[in-house]
Amino acid sequence: MRDFMFRIVLALASILSITAIGPLAPTIVVSSSQTAGVGAYWCPMHPNIRGQKGDLCRICHMALVPAPPPDFRPYGLSIETSPRAPIVGSKTEIRLTITDPRTNATVKDFEAVHERLLHLFVVGQDLEYFAHVHPTKRPDGTFVYSHVFPVQGPYRLIADFLPSGGVPQLLQRTIVTAGYQGTLVPRALLVPDGPEKVVDDLRVRLSMPPPVGGREQLLTFEFADSKTGAPVSDLEPYLGAVGHLLYVSSDLETATHSHPVADMSAPVGPAIVFQALFPRAGTYRLWVQVQRKGRVVVAPFTVAVQSPDAIRVR
Prior knowledge:
There is one protein chain. Strand 9 and strand 10 form a beta hairpin. The strands form five sheets. Strands 6, 7, 8, 11 and 12 form a five-stranded antiparallel β-sheet that branches. Strands 16, 17, 18, 20 and 21 form a five-stranded antiparallel β-sheet that branches. A four-stranded antiparallel β-sheet has the order 4-5-10-9, with no helix packed on it. It folds into three domains: 72 residues, no CATH class; 101 residues, Macroglobulin (MG2) domain (Immunoglobulin-like, Sandwich); 118 residues, Immunoglobulin-like, CATH 2.60.40.1930. It starts with a helix and ends with a helix. It is built from two helices and 21 strands. Helices cover 6% and strands 39% of the residues.
């Protein structure tokens, strides 16, 4: 939830014409009470980017959508599964219901963000399992998806969506499979690994400065053919971007869904750049997703983030 609060801080800063923190600042905007003109539209992924209808975000190049009024209460999210306790290896129907914090009514209208109304991430409590899926919206406003859970245990479901007239939401809920008798306390034992991985004939290399909690920084992923070593230039658009990135803390308290900085990333590879903010020190699991030859490739990385105090001591 901390990444959600960070988005809200940026959004509030924009609405009040306060200079936002970080490399995105400064952005001068008009009052949110205006219904047209500069400032009436924003980027839900980068809320301090404002403009007019038809403009694109200067960071991710996503089309701006109408900016909501300054009400930042989180929306409600309830999840039902059938069967109630998912059975490993069998299909489980997941139903998500989103409610308005002001009325408790089921929300039925959503804005498409990167070609989908709702992005759902399913991650194992140990952060070894990862899936990025897209439930189908029904006329009553609920979203449904059939999923097969591979092993027993708790799973964290992370829903990323934008209600029409609202602010971006990234909400988490936990479900537990049948037969699991272990702990429900998230304690992923993550060990930082090397900067390079080979997945599905792709060699993926992560370059970044030493990560520090509370600081925005750039993460660069470079892609090469694992057999020839040649940089690739045939990455394909995936959900409106050249790549997607999810990173989650080892205690599962924070999660962030990020998209590339368009002007710093090659649209077909080999390099994709993301802007990231690790909210605090700790260990994080990252999953970068790209599409090549019609297949989505997921490369996981684990990084240790230091506190600002530890850096100053040095």
